[in-house]
Structures are given as C-alpha cells and as structure tokens.
Design goal:
Layout (H helix, E strand, L loop, with lengths): L1 H68 L4 E2 H11 L1 H19 L5 H18 L11 H15 L3 H17 L12 H17 L5 H5 L2 H35 L4 E2 L4
Parallel strand pairs: 1-2
C-alpha cells in the first residue's frame, strides 16, 4: 500500500513539474517570438511585402495574357477585382505581420529578477489552482477568473499582479475550506506522455528555435544579411515583371477599359 502511494505521489509530482515546464516554455516561446520580430521584423515585413507584390504582378501578367490570347478587351476593373480576391490571404498575412512587427517594437523586456519573481509566484499559484492539477478550479467562477488572470499576468511577467492574485487565491481557498486537498487525476501516465510530447514539440519548432539565433551575434548578422539580399533580389525580380507586363501590353496591342471612380 505504501509503495503504491509512493508511486502515485511520484507520478503526480512529475505531472505537476511537466505542466509547469510546459507553461514556462510556452511563455518563453512567446517572448522569443517578440524578440525575434524586434530584431528582424522590419526586414521580414519588407521582404514579404515585396514577395506579395511579385505574386500580384505575376497574376496580372497571367490575366492579361489570357485576355490577349482570347482577343478580349482588357477590363482592368475586372482584372483587379479578380487579383484582389486571389491575393486576399496574402494581404491578411501581410497585415498580421506588420501588426506583429509594430507590437514587438513597443514590447518591453522584463528584467531577469522581475521574471524570476513572476515565475516563482506563478508556480505557487499553478500548483494550487491549475485546472489540470486541481480540476475543482473549474467548479468555481472565482477560481476560473483568478486562473485566467494569473495566466495572462505570467505571460506578461507581471509579478505585482501575480502577487495580488496569489493573495486572492489563498483567501478564496481558505473560505471554501480547500487550504489542503488530495487530488486524484485519472490516466496519469497518458497525461505525462502527452505533456512530454508537447514539450518536445515546443522546443523543436518556431518560434522557440529562434533562441539559438538571437543568442549568437554572428547568426543575427548573417540572418540580416540574408534578408537584405533577398529583398534586393525581390526588387530586381519585381522590375523584371513590370517590364514583362509593359512589353506584353505594348506588343499585344491590348485595348483597355478603365472604370474611374
């Protein structure tokens, strides 16, 4: 009986530690993404914008060539509407990238001492009311609200907010007589395996893998050079496409319809 209890306790402690590790890695990944965009965001946005312009120009050439081959009059309003529809997802991605770049510029980097304090407080809160550790949290609106606030504050590394939340958590648990509790979580081994898989995925994909680049000055310089070279290449390609389109329209003897607003 004692041996079974020890195994159960060891599994729970591992599960608890993995949950906290996953949350910490997710927060780190978010922070790494912000730092990455702060460092490379403007170049990445310019690069992608030029890529989008090249795609748009190629589509314009394709639509015009198709109309010329069919002997049709080029209705630029129709062509532009068709291209706008084709390009919608690209423009949405560009807008998202531009917004992320602007947010990264304004983002503040927390000091290591403040970050450490926030992590410690969050760990204490998580051990008490993390829904995966303490399922009863989902039975109380107050605890759900406090947990959501704690999660946001942790990602912002707002140690002061977390300290306030911890006081409220302790107060509420005391009021409901849950200062100490025994937790029975089913399928513990499966949950542990799932968490280990999640952790492995986080550290092996973007944005977490950007960490190595950001910590290496040479790698940062190389990445910037790579992006600048790509930007130059896209600009050159865009000029070529513009020339191709102009020649196509001139040599094809195209007739245009322009609808002015």
């Amino acid at each position: 009986m004692d041996e079974m209890f020890r195994i159960k306790k060891d599994s729970y402690e591992m599960y608890e530690e993995l949950l906290l590790q996953r949350d910490q890695l997710e927060r780190e990944a978010s922070s790494i993404r912000i730092s990455y965009m702060k460092e490379f965001g403007e170049l990445i946005t310019e690069d992608f914008n030029l890529k989008v312009e090249c795609i748009k120009k190629k589509k314009t050439i394709a639509y015009c060539q198709q109309a010329i081959n069919r002997g049709q009059i080029l209705d630029m309003q129709v062509i532009n509407d068709a291209i706008a529809e084709d390009m919608e997802l690209y423009y949405m991605e560009l807008a998202k990238l531009s917004n992320e770049c602007e947010l990264a510029k304004d983002a503040k980097v927390s000091s290591s001492s403040k970050a450490d304090r926030a992590k410690k407080i969050y760990r204490r809160i998580a051990k008490r009311i993390h829904p995966d550790i303490y399922p009863q949290t989902m039975e109380y609106d107050e605890l759900i609200d406090l947990w959501e606030r704690a999660f946001v504050a942790y990602h912002m590394l707002d140690a002061d907010e977390l300290a306030d939340i911890e006081v409220l958590v302790n107060k509420f648990l005391k009021e409901i007589g849950e200062e100490s509790f025994e937790i029975d979580i089913p399928d513990m081994e499966e949950r542990i395996e799932r968490l280990e898989a999640e952790i492995n995925e986080i550290i092996t994909i973007e944005p977490y893998i950007y960490k190595d680049i950001l910590e290496d000055e040479i790698a940062v310089a190389e990445k910037k050079s790579e992006l600048k070279a790509e930007i130059i290449e896209y600009k050159r390609y865009l000029e070529e496409l513009s020339e191709i389109l102009n020649n196509l329209l001139a040599e094809g003897g195209a007739t245009f319809i322009w609808k002015m607003n």
